[in-house]
Design goal:
Layout lengths: L11 H11 L4 H8 L3 H9 L6 H11 L3 H5 L9 H12 L14 H13 L3 H22 L2 H21 L2 H16 L4 H18 L2 H18 L4 H20 L3 H15 L7 E3 L2 E3 L1 H14 L3 H11 L9 H17 L3 H14 L1 H6 L1 H13 L5 H9 L6
Helix pairs in contact: 1-3, 1-4, 2-4, 6-8, 7-8, 7-9, 8-9, 9-10, 9-11, 10-11, 11-12, 11-13, 12-13, 13-14, 13-15, 14-15, 15-16, 15-17, 16-17, 17-18, 17-20, 18-20, 20-21
Length: about 400
């Protein structure tokens, strides 16, 4: 007797098909408009091939919709909408916050705790307290006028950007990035301005506008070079911008620009004594640089090289990397394994991502996309896969 089958979860492929049919287009029309192959589009819609970020961006542009629509964000498992509404309100009130208890003495420590929750991908605990924390940070910055107070606000906004981005609210992420840039401009600090530029470039990355994102990173790096700042914080911020540019360039299929920024990141990483540093919600060092290099091989369609790097990293210590970065490593390893046809290894990589960073692994679009394809390809039930799909909210089975 055959085992029960598992239905492939509704995700990017089905959303593409729904949007395409709503416009009365055949697959060839959409493929031509998006400049992707007809064969690839068919496989994505059937659930037999993962839709990469670059392809998803091209399809969303052709369809005239935000990427978040294709990804189905925010997901059904998103937090109570009232929490997001509270965050929107706090971000909106950047001039006249509703707060009477600023507690400036405890604010640095409270923001540090929020940053730790962000690094640990603990979004469930971070979100409820974030609106009040931002309101306090805004009031404190206005009351004090001190650059350090504005830097605290930049850091608080960085946590809000991650929440909005990860939970699938790109419009809110755009507003937060603008607020962060505004706060950074009050500090006169290249470090704060680079942190804000990292978020701003992230909004373009999320929208699939990779070239404009690269322009943002280039402008910020030019400003930093002119400043002459050489502190650890500055190196971490500049290195993080180069890594953001690595992602943007690789998704734009620009191998030369990818290598350019990767070389600069590697040189900066050598100055951090072998361990990654986490400063102002940015992680940078040798480990994160290697992880970004691995991801470029996937984006540039060199999955075998990505798999080889993932194998090499299995026995390597990566000191200083937060769970958010280690989770990314395993998600990218899953993407690479799936691309070379090793489904079992792809599933094991997703399971490791869940162990390290469960809240991120559950909602990361690429983790869900790999999982969707694995469910689609496994016509017969696979217990581990079924459990993982159910945990991620992609299957009722």
């Amino acid at each position: 007797m055959h085992a029960a089958t598992t239905s492939p979860p509704t995700a990017v492929g089905e959303h593409i098909a729904v949007q395409r049919k709503a416009r009365g287009w055949g697959q060839r029309q959409l493929a031509d408009r998006a400049k992707v192959s007809l064969s690839l589009l068919g496989k994505i819609e059937r659930g037999d091939r993962a839709c990469t970020p670059a392809v998803a961006a091209a399809l969303a542009t052709a369809l005239g919709i935000p990427l978040s629509v294709l990804y189905g964000q925010p997901y059904a498992e998103a937090p109570d909408p009232t929490l997001i509404d509270a965050l929107r309100s706090a971000v909106r009130r950047h001039r006249h916050p509703q707060v009477t208890d600023v507690r400036p003495d405890t604010l640095p420590g409270d923001i540090a705790v929020a940053s730790e929750m962000r690094a640990g991908t603990n979004y469930r605990d971070l979100l409820p307290g974030l609106p009040g924390l931002i309101s306090r940070a805004v009031a404190n910055a206005h009351d004090s006028g001190d650059p350090e107070a504005w830097q605290l606000l930049v850091d608080a906004y960085s946590c809000a950007f991650t929440i909005a981005h990860r939970l699938g609210y790109p419009d809110l992420a755009d507003v937060v990035a603008a607020r962060q840039e505004w706060a950074a401009s009050q500090t006169w600090s290249p470090v704060a301005q680079m942190a804000a530029a990292w978020s701003e470039a992230g909004t373009y990355q999320s929208a699939g506008d990779y070239l404009e994102g690269l322009a943002v990173t280039d402008r910020a790096l030019t400003t930093w070079a002119a400043s002459g700042q050489d502190s650890v914080d500055a190196v971490v911020a500049a290195g993080s911008l180069h890594l953001r540019a690595v992602t943007l360039a690789s998704r734009a299929r620009d191998d030369a620009t990818t290598k350019h920024h990767l070389r600069h990141a590697q040189r900066l990483a050598e100055r951090l004594a072998g361990a990654d540093q986490y400063r102002h919600n940015l992680t940078f060092g040798p480990g994160n640089t290697v992880l970004h290099e691995l991801a470029t091989h996937i984006e540039l369609e060199r999955p075998k090289r990505a798999v080889a790097m993932a194998e090499d990293l299995r026995s390597v210590e990566l000191p200083g990397l937060a769970p958010t970065r280690v989770g990314h490593l395993h998600i990218d390893a899953a993407r690479a394994r799936l691309a070379v046809g090793d489904r079992d290894a792809a599933l094991q990589a997703l399971l490791r991502a869940r162990e390290v960073a469960p809240q991120m692994a559950r909602i990361h679009p690429m983790a869900r996309e790999v999982l969707r394809v694995l469910v689609s390809l496994h016509r017969r039930s696979k217990p581990e896969l079924s459990i993982l799909a159910k945990w991620a909210g992609l299957s009722e089975a």
